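# nightly structure sweep
# worker-07 picked up a monomer target from the shared queue
# config: single-sequence mode, recycle default, output format = structure tokens
# input follows
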Amino acid sequence: MKLRNLFYILLMSLFALQSFAVSDKDMEEAKVIAAKLYLRWANNGSGYLDDVSASSMADLESKLKAQEKENLKAFKSVSIPADYASWDKQRFVQFWGTTFFTSPALNADGKRAKDRVKAKVSAMNVSAPSSAPKAEETKPDEAKGEEKKTEEAATPATSNDEGGITIPEPQEVMHQEEAISDSLAILQADEQSLALADRPEKAKSHTWIYVIILIVLVILVVWLMVYAANMMKKQGKDGPVSDGNEKKYKKEISALEAENDKLRSEISRLKSQIDEAKAETVRLKAAQADGRKQWKEEKKATVATSAVAETPVKRPKEESKPQPKVINEIYLGRANPKGLFVRGDRRPNPAHTVFRLDTKDGIVGTFRFAGTPEAFELASSNPLQYLAGGCVAENFEDAGNASKIITEAPGTAILENGCWKVLRKSKIRFE
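# output follows
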């Protein structure tokens, strides 16, 4: 009976610790995240935002260029509900990850940032509300009422006249076993949630839940050990008991010891998973830093290549020189923000080729995704960099999970000053 009451109190404490609400600071932080990602997707030339960090909307707006300030007007026109202080974490994530981006005033390309906004807002730690009732104020009454109901439902214990030992009724033992079963069920449910924790942000946000579960399990194990020790001590103090009661106690002690062993194993396993989650978080942060460094280096190289491609080469006019033969098939690299393909080759170049252009006169042609394994691997490594300049697609984020890229409609390009320029982007899809 006491075990069940103790478990109820611990369970209510766990639920009390999970109550959160949205503060003004949380709302401002989520708004900055959503605005930055929206502006990044709304304009292909807003790559500088990747290096911008801001603590508030005013701070972010002061660091924007003219085009982003213009795009921000549509973002700021979307109204935000005034009752967000009463929201829980789920409603908070739902608003910024879905509801906000349904506004027709927003840029269509900018709306594609909603999935990344949802992921980043889900990883936020929402502040505890100052007006939330304290868990300690509700615990005593609830525990007292539960204890009263349990005492009214329980039957009195019977006495053994031979040894003077008070033997608990089967109903009380059943309550204890039910409490242990409930705790194991909660542990299994948390084990399933641990298996779904892939991202480092999730592992970080759930670490405190694992700690609480560990505390509950440790308290339960300690209580069971004390209960078993008291039963054994009472047996030695009160003298021998009947054979039936002795077998009954031994069976209960054996069951309790088995439960102790199971709980210890679960505690060890959960500790190992917490350590693995922390290690994975550190590893992914390091990989993210390396990826950002590599991206910056590629960006510098791209700017240098674009400068070379955009500089026309002046050549002296030659009289009576035969016209060069038109090349009908050209393999192009990615298109820069100005719509110029930064590279052209007569044959596929595994390190640069992304598109294949077909032309009859060498002036105007149609282009499509090259379709080679090397081009697919190059485009999948950074879809925005290699595809966005010459393609349109439903969601470039799907490229990481795609097995191939299909051209649904070819694009059109024209030769200007020795460089091929995009007139109309091609349409692709990821499968």
